[in-house]
Amino acid sequence: MIWNNIKIAFRNLWRDKTFSLINISGLAIGLACCIIIFLFVSNELSYDKYHKDYQQIYRLGIEGKLGDMEMKGPFTSNPMAPALLSEFPEVEEAVRINRSSYIIQNEDKIFSENRIFWVDSTFFKLFSANFISGNPTKAISESRQMVITKSMALKFFGNIDVIGKNLKVNQNQIYTISAVIEDCPSNTHFQFDFLIPYFDYSQSRDNFWLNDGKYTYVKLKKGTKQSDFDKKLNTLVTKYVAPALKSALNMNYEDMVKAGNYYRFYSRPMSDIHLHSHSTFELGNNGDILNVSLFTIIAILILVIACINFTNLSTARSSKRAKEIGVRKSLGSSKTRLIFQFLFESVLLSFIAFTIAMIIVEFVLPITSVLIGKELSSNYINNPQLFFIFLGISIATGLLSGTYAAFFLSSFKPAKVLKGELSKGKNNLLLRKSLVIFQFSISIFLFIATFTVYKQMQFIQDKKLGFEKENVLILKNADEISNIKSFKERIQSHPGIISSTFASAIPGEFLNGNIIGRKADLDPNQYSFRRISADEDYQKTLQLELVEGRFFNEEIASDSSKVLINEAGVKELGLTNPIGEIIARGVRRPLTIIGVVKDIHGDTFRNKILPLIILPKDSEYQTRLAIRYHASNKNAILGIIEKEWNNYTNNIPFEYYHLDNLIYDLHKKEYATMRTFTAFACLSILIAILGLLGLSSYTTEQRIKEIGIRKTLGSSVGGIIKMMNKDFLQWILISILITSPLAYFFMSKWLENFAYRASLDIWIFIASGLLSILIAITTISIQTWKAANQNPVESLRYE
What we know:
six-stranded mixed beta barrel; 25 helices
């Protein structure tokens, strides 16, 4: 019986090659998209779940409000972990992490490394790692010990047998390697290359509760509820933070709360960090649960479109198989057996499509990895359950696609179909009409979504940032230059270099914070600002836009007590005439505002621009040198700068990056989302076009005699094409009316994730509708044109 079903199935597939090709192509593309999206989603959901007892591990953070400024950061202060271990019995272990960048050296191999973590000795009690050599319990238990990854061992020594060997950190500290571990897996929210003991860290004994910036992780005992722990956690605010606010900032915590402000601690499950935490201060580049949901929906929609194609084409070609069904029923075939046959054909076709889809996935996966900026791998050998999951999806798709057609075809009455009295049926036509409307609704929605995403990306690209990012080179480790003033003079003597500036940070990098206040008699409140310390050439080099006032002048000695703020800072402080206003950084000496710069977009467009204070040089530790150059001299300039670098530093690696690349990296996730979304949207529309092509082909074939009669009676080809397009156009117009308000609602919600966003213009909806109509008219017209240009004698020969 099975063998007979297989023969019949292949015979029918071969007999109707167009139907088979369209359905297999649509299903193969749909399944391939679905598999790739599944690989992406499963990777995103797997983050940090390789750690033992990950369900018990939480990261602590601070959230607060001061005036109009709200802040949520994934860090706490240094004394948090010891306090929890001594006062909270539900805390099993606690680990502090501080991230740093240093020059690492082994003889003549010198590199600047930025994935160095200071960690407590209990690090491996919370986090899992594969040890190649060394003891996890003793690896970072003593001063000057160091754990390195396999790739770092190979980089500095050329082999992994390095236990007991030394590395020089920051040119003057010798650390002995105590363990070598495998590189961190890709699905973790932080990556590190070096681990060194926290008690060697210069700030490890800082017990001030307001000096945050340290990442604290805890492992709670089994059975501890997160809500109960968070409630208890905030008792530490009144116990330790309130006195610190009073002593450092003369702020009364109770008065602060009464004024509508707050300061509190929170915990976040480690497995939630990658998709749900989006702070500027994350240890790694996190994903977004919104994108995961979005692509999951796209995968479902693509599969639904492919299933609709199958159902539509199967019911449309019912007349071709009517006599076969009539004969088989007359010879005793039961309805159940016919249903089984049709479902078997559907599953077989789906399995063929699945086989092709698997081949497509292997070829396309590297391209997809580039598109989304994440390496994906099918890896069926190490993860065989993936193959069976995809096979299950394929079988389910075949059954889902073929169910209606199977029951519809098997319900034909043999007496009627053998007499040629097969009724096309209102229910059958209504179903096909509904499915086409639904299919076009999905396609129009994807058009609108794609145009919206593209418009937002264009908005990000075209938006003025408050500075000029092109043709600016940033030197890292500029604090290692022996004489910064002389170095600047030397490089600026070259005609290709316009200017340079020495600063603590550049727009697009992490900016430290400060509490800023006005005179108490004018405003008793305190405000949170970001800060940059820069020399007098900062504005010229980065081409900041001055709203009013002036920038620093090295010839004016009093500028050491002057500052500039941005427009957001003016608004935050409530100033009407900011020039000459006196402000203060906490309890430090008063500072006078001498200028206001336009707001600087140094973060993703998802976040609001924060108040910023620009301090004079030497107010902060400065490590960046920005150099503006003429674009035409780029390659020659690099050689000149490197030569001077080697003259002014002591074997420090020459490392640099371009400001425009730094800004691009801020939005890299958004660009990847746009590219990937566009690609999948186009593929789903292609599947819909394939279905429309097949359906219009069968519709034209069923009406071929009508077309012949109309031509005989004098109808033009244009008139026949217009007639055939009429029904489809009605369905598309209904789709547009249904989809537009839904798309407006969902895309408005998506845009709300951006603090700075493009408008959702009417042209997006008009263009999406017109594009859908154009595709439909073109597809249907081609099929109709072929039929209308046939000789009427051919179609009416047997009448």
